[in-house]
From TrEMBL:
Organism whose genome encodes this protein: Phenylobacterium conjunctum
UniProt similarity note: Belongs to the bacterial ring-hydroxylating dioxygenase alpha subunit family.
Domain of life of the organism encoding this protein: Bacteria
Annotated keywords: 2Fe-2S, Dioxygenase, Iron, Iron-sulfur, Metal-binding, NAD, Oxidoreductase
Gene3D superfamilies given in the database record: Naphthalene 1,2-dioxygenase Alpha Subunit, Chain A, domain 1, Rieske [2Fe-2S] iron-sulphur domain
Listed name of the protein: Aromatic ring-hydroxylating dioxygenase subunit alpha
Pfam families xref list: Rieske (PF00355), Ring_hydroxyl_A (PF00848)
EC assignment: 1.14.13.-
GO MF term (any one): dioxygenase activity
Broad class of enzyme this protein falls into: oxidoreductase
Domain Rieske: 39-119
Amino acid sequence: RATLTALFDPETGWLDRRVLSDESLYQLELERIFARGWNFMCHESQLKAPGDYLISYIGEDQVIVVRGADGEIRALLNTCRHRGNALCRAEQGRAKSFVCSYHGWNYALDGELIGVPGQSTFYHGELDKSRLSLAKARIESHLGFYFATLAEDAPSLHDYLGVTGRAGLGMICAHGEIEVAEGVQKNIIDCNWKIAVDNLFDWYHVPYSHASANTAGFLDIARIQFPKDQMVMLGEYGHAIGGPGIPRAAQDQINALTDAQRMELSHAQADMAPRIRPRAATDLMGPEGVRSEGHPNIFPNLWVTISGTQMCLRLPRGPSHTELWWYTLVPKAAPPEAKREIIRRMNHVFGPAGLLEQDDGENWSQSTRSSRGVASRTLGHNLQMGLGHDEAKVGAGGEHYIEGLISEHGQRWLYRAWTEWMSARDWAELKANHSAPPTGRV
Ligand code: FES
Ligand code: FE
């Protein structure tokens, strides 16, 4: 524990670079963060009918997320109980059962082992199939978003998300009923997963890293302002939201729109910018709502973009690689041409064909690479921006926030949570020792 807490000092913002490169720390992350946390699996719209499935991950454990004949969504580990072969090779599809391609063991949609070739002959009728069902992960949902954990002792998803995590998902659903567009875009960047996550809170880089997007006419950097009305929200267990806010008066105007007016506006703008987000400040985000919006991160690795129309999983693939899965979310009721337009625009923002993440990815990659050098890895990262100058307050919705956006409070919160998760032996210890969201001078 002492060694782990020495890797990040929240008082000075010093981060040991080995956090971004060390193989043994990575193995511990798989156990203590990914296996224990609630990992995003899918949105209910991705599994419409019984037998619909997709592959997802809890760290490096592959999971079949499948809607059973009874309509229930389950998370089954994608590994045959005979010799460990991956049962399901397709990324998504519809199945009646899962037959292993090695020796033909057959599993029902609920994971039960229902068929074994040679059961009465080669096994002499002695194989106890009832003990060889597929291993299951716990799965729970909030607003149609399904998450899974391998920890029996983890709190409920609702409690785990807390005000900040629930507000993050609420920001998406405040668009109305949504669905995931066909085709999750997947690509690998040579970077540690945490750098891809902590960039969410980094608005300092935008004018500089994305100068090329400005030159291309995609971003108008001169018009990006960071007034006081913006903030970073910090939640329990490491969830956070960081991003430009919208003035309360503008939110009130949005809330006054009728559904028809809002839908018209949504279609006209197609990208559903936050300013047309309905109800965001009310029923989905606490009694009084939060008055600012941004990119939420559901700890550890589900990134939601500020528009609420894209989400990304930062999946760990070793200390130096991260697989990014980009989802586009569209309102269910939108006409096909509006959906197409949303998808077209989103493809130009983040993701492998987007203009922004290519700039970011190159920087993350180089920061990760230099964390491996014998001399350079001793230098640490400096995350001191805003330290001691800002005040954490509590909003009427119970959210903890810091006014102003350009600081490194979000990054410090992330690495503080990382240290706490990595140091705790079990959920009881994590619950007892994790930091409550701050109040006062931070
Ligand atoms: Fe699956 Fe043998 S490994 S049937
Ligand atoms: Fe960026």
